[in-house]
Amino acid sequence: MVREDGKRNFALRESGEETSVFSGNTPRQAALKAARRLEPESSESSAKSNAEEIKLREKGTDKVHKYEAWSWEDEAPEDSPDWMPEEITEANVSKKGIEHLDE
What we know:
Oligomer: single chain
Structural class: mainly beta
Distance between the termini: 18 Å
Largest sheet: 5 strands, antiparallel
Number of domains: 1
Helix content: 10-25%
């Protein structure tokens, strides 16, 4: 279901349970938000080798978007605002496909 602002809601599925909801204009945008909550690795290369699968169900549909996701710690940009911490969590995802629920 698309909201008035164009964003859609996606529920994170873990072991058949929907634990969190992320919103975004696209499934990838919501997946990136979910990936930032993963335990970060020290570098991007080690994070990619330890990627985890995440599944996001689009609210109002039976579509489940499957992604391979990883996150890592990185230094904040030099022009970052004062409130931003020195170390930030970066994330990336790679789409693996779409499933349809039978429920």
